[in-house]
Amino acid sequence: MLKTLLPMVLLAALPALAASPDWKARLAEVMPLLGHRNWILVVDSAYPLQTSPGIETMDTNATQLEVVRAVVAAINRSIQVRSVIFMDAELPFVSDDDAPGASAYRAEVSQLLRDYPIERLPHEKIISNIDQAGKTFHVLVLKTNMTIPYTSVFIRLDCKYWSADQEKRLRRKMAAAPKAVPK
């Protein structure tokens, strides 16, 4: 009985193993659904698997720069969102002696993201922000094969067609509007 059952179980498992999701297809599928307050993270291979309900993690088996390039391009093609980029404050202090290739990565990622302002925060603060966001909003985490610490690129999405200045003007108008008198 066991001899006949084992091959059937293995055959049943094959489709699930073969159906591992393609990160590029998943990115394309989820992009139209994402809006302001969602996040896309491109992280190194040791980034922790977080458990907040809105955090989806995928292994890309690709290089960090390849994934960053694809994510930035997908965001730029979208009609609804723009990038607000965060990186670890620790990265500028990672030496090539401790992590060979760190300087080359810093130069390459700086060149790739040259058109974007980058806010640097301590790694633990960014992870805490992501954990909080994942309780309410979707966070797509794309793990890469990067083995240099503090190299993750954290992208918070913001509205492409409504700026912070426009929001401030709207709030000022609302505050200045006469209050309705209850009848």
Question: Could you describe the 3D structure shown?
Answer:
This protein has 183 residues and is α/β, with parallel strands linked by helices. It has a single domain, classed as RbsD-like fold, CATH 3.40.1650. It is 40% helix and 19% strand. It contains six helices and six strands. It has helices at residues 2-18, 23-30, 64-77, 102-112, 123-133, 164-176, and strands at 39-43, 55-59, 81-88, 118-121, 139-143, 153-159. A six-stranded mixed β-sheet has the order 2-5-1-6-3-4. β3, α4 (102-112) and β4 form a beta-alpha-beta unit. Residues 5-20 have low confidence and may be disordered.
Keyword list:
single chain, 183 residues, alpha/beta, RbsD-like fold, 6-stranded mixed β-sheet, 6 helices, 6 strands, 40% helix
**CATH architecture name:** 3-Layer(aba) Sandwich
- Walk across the major sheet and give the strand order: 2-5-1-6-3-4
The secondary structure category is alpha/beta
CATH top-level class:
Alpha Beta
Helix and strand sequence: HHEEHEHEHEEH
What is the overall shape? elongated
DSSP helical segment count: 6
List the helices and strands and how they pair.
Elements: H1 2-18, H2 23-30, E1 39-43, E2 55-59, H3 64-77, E3 81-88, H4 102-112, E4 118-121, H5 123-133, E5 139-143, E6 153-159, H6 164-176
Parallel strand pairs: 1-5, 2-5, 3-4
Antiparallel strand pairs: 1-6, 3-6
Give a brief outline of the structure.
The longest helix has 17 residues, at 2-18. The protein has helices spanning 2-18, 23-30, 64-77, 102-112, 123-133, 164-176; strands at residues 39-43, 55-59, 81-88, 118-121, 139-143, 153-159.
